[in-house]
Design goal:
With about 1000 residues, the chain is mainly alpha-helical. It contains 42 helices and five strands. The N and C termini lie far apart (about 120 Å).
Length: about 1000
């Protein structure tokens, strides 16, 4: 084997990653698990036998392995193990590493064609015959066929000079690349997609994407081949057509896989050293996929309304295009557009190729100048596109070049930031009373499909990680220890890659940008923002980084429309709550005043404001000139409101003990938060912080909690809220902690906070409870004052809503005779019109329980006038109330019973209920137990005289009517039940002096009228004759 064709252990190891397994094969792994025998290396071919030691459940196995290589790359492999995988099996790995680590034990041979050339005729014949003998079952048919063709003068094989030699290697002009089993790649991707995200398939697909990036970094041409195979399987996924037909969105994780697919193609077409024919081939393939109907759109299932954003944003008169006429942008659109980009710009080439590229004599200070005032190079390009170049350089194994371009881009952004601040200050002086709400970016950098800020941040952070020797680690990071490495040429004194990374993250997060359309893109904005902040939180802030935070915080507050934290922003700008919370917690220990300014400015949520500024149409780049005025469909509004709530809670916690700041935060919450649920959460948070067990209550914070609770009460008073009862109970608890004056205050103004029912059943009842008195250590005077307020509240509520509050009012006024009488009169006044029989019966029972039987009787008679029980309502819940009312009347005396029976007869048509009442009235004498417990000795009431005669007649009539009603729709399965019903009717009939005759006549009438029901009438005759 020639030196230039020797395999490299690192490259073999990289290409032997077991993507579908649990780890990576290393030389140590393969040595321990494998031993290799009979290795031969003829020319560009390596073959050998690999023995896999026996394990507990498997016997020893021997595999025959053959490997072809060309110019330091394995180009094909075969193994008798039969394992099917995307990458090499363990036996191929073992043989490769054995050859690399023990070259002296592998006998080298010339290519087989050279060996054959040295043989004479006898040797050649012997060689062929021995070969056939050793492998006669495998090669004999082929040998015979070849012999026949060679002996035939006109055969195709005789038309070609020479013969192929698999051990001789490829021509110098032939393509050479690492072996890739394309069929297995397709099968595995198809399998993962068919699993629909289950069994870890999403993770496996992400590992495949990571492998593609690894290949690109090694500048392995298989990277593009493998991504093409993956993409073809993605495009063939049958779910795409199904989702499009049903109009449903693909799952979030699946959508993220498509995003990564598009980003990888962007990297591939931006390869700085790819050939034009390669790019043309990729462009053709990308356009083919892009033209398929089911190709996913860039912004999820929502059509794009933005112009071509890979290139610079349109300006001037051409900016306002009709978005409806633009084609949808797919996940491949940016890669297609990137095919038009090139790397031939001399300024760009100088930037990425040298650390010494400066021009200190350059004094062009225009907006798009090539150098800044220090002579450092700048790179003006659509920011996401410029950052895509950085990603491409990193992905293709050019980390230093990527770092140089990243620094130029960040320096350009910082210069633009300063220019924008100066421009805004000038405008502010010229137009002091005009609200400027321009937005310079229709697409935000955070959440962008190309992730520009994340790319710059990652590139710079990689550069500030150190390896074991303390030098910058430009490739795979070995440590998460971030350090301020020595300054780059184009960094200010004291700056480092770390400070630059942090600053560009803050610039991107603070950018004012419009909220994109569509659920997926809005969720992506939130997700990417949180991911970037999470990475920032891993960095420990030192004095240098704190200066960066201060600098950017001041800029964000003063930069006007260029900042999401500017004084005036557009109503459709992405809110800054999550970012501001991070800034607040970071700055608080170092500059509390600045931290609160940032957090309070960020609290606004203009999309929910009815009078939010709509913008200045005279300014260029204004959002209204491109996106039509509309109320935005903010699908993530609930998440945004929760982040707003989190920011407010963080400020409340930090402001504990500071009266001035607490008042300011309270005002901000009351002004900016529009969700009652979130305000309630903040009220609860403030209450918990104020009443921590290890310290005395913070009365200011308690008052803040109470104020927020009162606001919640007012907001939810006239709306439905399933937590309303919980909110009311909590408010009373909070007011109790604040003090007796707070309880008295909420009762005095109850009508602005509570419904009458809440005020009586929860508020006043809790205030009057013994636990509240004990908790507040109230003296007699204070108790009476609270009780007086509670009684006043109760009477007001009873007047306003007697149906629901009368009973509570009576209960609350029990200890005050005048108030109790007033409450009772309210009940009587409302009884005839506004109260139901259920409410009146309930209050009547209460009155009897409290020792007012005559009042109870009065209310019971009023309740009876509202009641109507039909013949078939024998299980109605009011029956118990009717029986109770009759029992009460019976116990009071004959006159009371005589008065209520006509009401019963009028209201109750159910025969079984009437007969029950009749029976009870005949068991004892009316008034047997008088009002004062004296036992009466009167006679039983006669059924032949009033009032029982009226009740008896009504009962018999009810039985007759009910019988006819039942017979109208009776079925055979109810016959036996009907016979029992007639038996009960007979018992009632017989209570009358002529009852037997009446019942007989009744039965005879039934037989005549319903003679068609023969079976039923037969049963009637059997029982009743």
């Amino acid at each position: 084997m020639k030196e230039k064709d020797q395999l490299d252990q690192g490259e073999v190891r990289q290409n032997c990653v077991k993507v579908l397994g649990v780890g990576v094969w290393t030389p140590k792994d393969s040595t321990n698990l494998m031993c290799t025998l009979e290795v031969g290396d003829p020319g560009f071919h390596l073959s050998g036998t690999v023995t896999e030691p026996a394990i507990q459940s498997e016997p020893e196995t021997v595999c025959n392995v053959a490997i072809s290589f060309d110019r330091c790359k394995i180009t094909s492999v075969t193994c008798s193990c039969g394992n099917k995988d995307i990458f090499y099996c363990a036996h191929v790995v073992a043989l490769s590493l054995y050859r690399i680590r023990k070259p002296d034990q592998v006998k080298l041979h010339l290519p087989i064609s050279e060996t054959l050339f040295q043989m004479n005729r006898d040797q050649l014949q012997k060689f062929v015959q021995y070969l056939i003998t050793v492998h006669h079952t495998e090669v004999l048919p082929t040998a015979q066929k070849l012999a026949d063709e060679i002996l035939s003068q006109n055969s195709e094989i005789n038309q070609v000079h020479g013969a192929p030699d698999p051990t001789a290697g490829a021509s110098i002009d032939d393509e050479n690349c690492w072996h890739l089993d394309e069929e297995q790649v397709q099968e595995q991707v198809k399998l993962f997609l068919s699993q629909g995200g289950y069994h870890g398939s999403g993770k496996q697909l992400n590992l495949l994407f990571a492998k593609v990036r690894e290949m690109l970094k090694m500048r392995d041409s298989n990277g593009a081949r493998m991504l093409t195979l993956i993409t073809e399987q993605f495009m063939a996924d049958p779910r795409l057509s199904l989702w499009r037909q049903q109009g449903t969105a693909m799952t979030d994780k699946y959508r993220q896989l498509w995003d990564e697919l598009g980003a990888l193609w962007m990297c591939i077409v931006l390869n700085p050293h790819c050939k034009l024919e390669q790019k043309a081939s990729w462009l053709k393939q990308l356009k083919k996929w892009n033209g398929v109907d089911v190709c996913p759109w860039e912004d999820g299932n929502h059509g794009s309304e933005l112009p071509n954003l890979t290139n610079a944003l349109p300006q001037g008169a051409n900016a306002n295009q009709d978005s409806s006429n633009r084609p949808h942008r797919t996940v491949f659109t940016r890669a297609i557009e990137a095919c038009d980009l090139h790397w031939q710009d001399s300024h760009l080439q100088h930037i990425i190729s040298s650390d010494l590229y400066t021009n200190y004599c350059y004094h062009d200070d225009t907006e798009n100048s090539l150098f800044d005032s220090r002579g450092w190079p700048l790179w003006h390009e659509h920011v996401p596109t410029a950052c895509a170049r950085v990603d491409a350089l990193r992905s293709h194994g050019y980390p230093r070049e990527a770092l140089r371009l990243a620094i130029a881009i960040v320096n350009t952004l910082r210069r633009q930031q300063q220019k924008q601040l100066e421009m805004f200050r000038t405008q502010k002086k010229e137009l002091p009373h005009k609200s400027i709400t321009s937005i310079t970016n229709l697409e935000g950098w955070v959440g962008h499909p190309l992730d520009p800020v994340g790319t710059l941040f990652s590139s710079l952070m990689e550069a500030c990680r150190t390896d074991d020797e303390g030098f910058p680690n430009m490739g795979q990071c070995k440590s998460l220890e971030y350090q301020h490495l020595p300054a780059h040429k184009f960094l200010e004194e004291g700056e480092s890659y770390l400070t630059l990374a942090v600053e560009v993250a803050l610039i991107g997060l603070g950018q004012q940008r419009v909220m994109p359309d569509g659920l997926y893109t809005q969720e992506k904005v939130c997700r990417n923002e949180e991911q970037l902040i999470s990475k920032l939180q891993e960095i420990e802030l030192d004095d240098t980084l704190v200066k960066i935070f201060r600098k950017q915080a001041v800029f964000l507050l003063e930069a006007g429309p260029y900042s999401g934290l500017g004084e005036i922003i557009h109503r459709e700008s992405v809110p800054m709550h999550t970012f501001a919370k991070y800034l607040f917690t970071s700055l608080l220990p170092h500059d509390a005043e600045l931290a609160y300014k940032i957090a309070l400015r960020a609290m606004r949520l203009l999309v929910l404001e009815s009078t939010a500024p709509t913008g200045d149409l005279t300014r260029p780049h204004h959002i209204a000139s491109v996106v039509p005025n509309r109320y935005p469909r903010w699908f993530t509004l609930s998440h945004i409101e929760s982040q707003q709530c989190e920011l407010a809670s963080t400020m409340l916690t930090a402001a504990k003990g500071d009266v001035r700041r607490l008042e300011t935060v309270l005002e901000s919450i009351q002004k900016n938060i529009h969700s009652s649920s979130h305000i309630f959460k903040l009220a609860q948070d403030a209450f918990k912080i104020a009443t921590l067990m290890d310290s005395l209550p913070d009365i200011t914070l308690l008052k803040v909690s109470l104020e927020l609770g009162l606001q919640v009460m007012r907001m939810t008073l006239s709306t439905l809220n399933w937590r309303r009862r919980e909110m009311v109970r909590w408010l009373v608890t909070c007011a109790t902690e604040v003090g007796v004056y707070a309880l008295d205050s909420i009762m005095q103004s109850w009508f602005t906070l509570f419904t009458p029912t809440e005020a009586t059943s929860i508020v006043a009842t809790t205030v009057m409870s013994n636990s509240t008195i004990v908790r507040l250590h109230l003296d007699c005077h204070q108790q009476e004052k609270l009780a007086s307020s509670a009684r006043t509240l109760a009477l007001q509520c009873a007047m306003k809503d007697p149906q629901n509050c009368a009973l509570s009012a009576l209960t609350l006024c029990e200890k005050d005779h005048i108030a109790f009488e007033t409450a009772y009169q309210i009940v009587l006044d409302a009884a005839t019109t506004g109260m139901s029989y259920t409410q009146l019966f309930t209050i009547a029972r209460y009155m009897e329980h409290r020792g007012y039987p005559m009042r109870a009787y009065k209310l019971a008679t009023l309740a009876m006038t509202h009641l109507n029980l039909s013949y078939n309502q024998d299980t109605h819940p009011a029956i118990n109330d009717v029986l109770w009312a009759c029992a009460l009347s019976h116990s009071l005396g004959k006159n009371e019973l005589a008065a209520i029976i006509p009401l019963v007869v009028k209201s109750v048509k159910c025969a079984t209920v009437l007969s029950d009442i009749l029976r009870r009235c005949t068991l004892t004498t009316p008034g047997v137990v008088g009002l004062h417990g004296r036992r009466n000795s009167g006679k039983l009431m006669s059924l032949d005289k009033a009032p029982l005669r009226q009740l008896l007649d009504a009962t018999i009539g009810a039985y007759i009517n009910t019988t006819h009603s039942r017979l109208t729709h009776i079925s055979p399965r109810h016959y036996s039940e009907f016979i029992e019903f007639l038996s009960k009717a007979r018992e009632t009939f017989l209570m009358a002096h002529d009852g037997h005759i009446q019942f007989t006549q009744f039965i005879d009438n039934l037989k005549q009228i319903y003679k068609g029901k023969k079976k039923l009438m037969m049963l009637v005759r059997e029982r009743f004759g």
